[in-house]
Amino acid sequence: MTFPKDFAWGAATAAFQIEGATTADGRGESIWDRFAHTPGKVHNGDTGEPACEHYYRWREDLDLISSLGLRAYRFSISWPRIQPDGRGPANRKGLDFYRSLLEGLRERGISPLVTLYHWDLPQVLEDEGGWAARDTAERFAEYAELVFDGLGDLVEDWTTHNEPWVTAFLGYAFGTKAPGSADWARAIPASHHVLLSHGLVVRAFREAGRPGRIGVTLNLTVARPGRDRDDDRAAAQRLDGHFNRWFLDPIFRGSYPADMLEHYERKVGPFDAVCDGDLETIAQPLDFLGVNFYHPNVVLAHDDGSVLGIRDMQLDGDTTGMGWPVVPEALTELLVRVKRDYGDLPLLITENGAAFDDRVNGADVVEDPRRVAYIEGHLDAVEDAIAAGVDVRGYYVWSLLDNFEWEHGYSQRFGIVYVDFETQRRIPKRSALWYRNRITAATEGAA
Ligand code: FCB
Prior knowledge:
The chain is of the alpha/beta class.
């Protein structure tokens, strides 16, 4: 048995994906409300309503978490519930919701891991430039202080951002996610401001002597060349730079990767968002790194004039509902690499999971053997990384519940618990029951 005794066996969610209640108790509009209500942006015209109505059903959901034997729960705070206008004092009712939730977790002995930002920027701040504007980093630091003051007595583990790459590049360069801007000249400064905001928050957290641990969650990939060719190797290197090193290097080394600086300056223009001292701010020591991993990327050079000049190669073999390849051993490779290149800090797998076209059969059973295989394979990969000396402290399956999967709306089911969005009934899938047994076996056998 390799998993340590106090390993965080968990599941993850995000505010906008499960809460619903998008106008309740003074919540302001977020960029995801605006994006989802813009025709053509989200599959089927789906929006953040009703999602899982978790804002009203949270007690039932906490009981569910308990009944599945989970020890840890990762969720995010909705910024527009705390600051409907992106600035100013905290909305008491917003904080109260999360206090009740955290108290409920405490009563049930489940450890929270709280994400401050999982993509729901107050729309007001987007109107003022969003993450492309430096001021948004300051606003984020102000919001974080309100959350620490309001909830800090109930939380030990914080992450600042979920997947800065998505915020900056899917939000501002590719435009597939909110706010839907397709402009690299905004995306590159946005990436810097997200990183800066992370650093500002961690620094303030330390300076205030707040108790607890703080880190960040990055989505990382293993980038492989599709063919044995120099241009494909360069493409893989570029993807690694764009996706992994552009975030890991500033956080852990205090510098942006030179190859990508050169590449972006050539393709996009001068990178003048960085001010004196920013990189020192970004490179605050962290208590842990959260890693979200779904699949590796095999890439081909693709000289189409685009900024990255790469194309994903379709692989033979198993894929998920998202079309993502299932390659669990890549997770071991990734974790070993993070330790080798960025140092031996505690790692948490803050997301890993798969969407499939799940169906309820007449007996209220959801058979999802492919999800079981996916999770099992990736847990084995984590175990291999631990055996190779990587300090992995937890695993949070994505996701607890089927939910609003961003631009895919309700069409992609990632939950280990099935949600009937018409009736809001929850049905644990076979994978949830399997996971419960896996946790029991691991914790009973742990040293
Ligand atoms: C991650 C997101 C999470 C969910 C999964 C499938 O990128 O953090 O909210 O959408 O992908």
